[in-house]
Amino acid sequence: MCGRYAITLPAEAMANMYGSLDRPNLAPRYNVAPSQFAPMVAIGKAGDTRIIMARWGLRPAWMAKDPPTGPLFNARGETVADKPAFRGAFARKRCLIPADGFYEWKRDGKLRTPHFIAQPSKEPVAFAGLWEAASLEGGEILISMAIVTTAADDSFRPLHDRFPVVVQQPDWRDWLAHDTPASTLQSLIAPPPADFMVAYQVSDHVNKVAHDDPNCLVPLDNELLSAV
Q: What is the pTM (predicted TM-score) of this model?
């Protein structure tokens, strides 16, 4: 599961990384939560790469409103090709979701300890995503997205049994392209290589969604706690 993440990459750097002409007005986000807006990368109508702001929480075009339980912010990779809420987007509307990393809370009874999971180098990653465009009352178009998840490997499972799918740069075009075979897409839905990302404990400052500042990412000590 991925319920919070951070993306602080400046617009210019993001545009250069993904080969986009878009320069959206992006403020650093240290604590993105479901139902909030954040950047996604997708293929535009002209076949170009676009950086677009989207609500984190998918609403399929055929859905009159969000489900009673709230927006669909994660999509299980094992069923994404078949589940009605996601199969249309999986077939035709895949995106990349830029991130510095994501937060997870380790449970010990009633105690929940926040951790941040990122590359040891602190370089950004691209989560596999799905997007949709739905018409709202008044004619407004809602662009929304969800993060595709997969089973976590053994090293990460003490924190959570799910992990966002990270798409490596050589595979970005395959994930985004409309004509990529389903078998190729399924092969990308897997945990990242061992030691590709690490987890470190952060303070409970991040627990409040209203806290969206650099203090969310400050480690409680200077040592990485675990490799995942």
A: 0.93
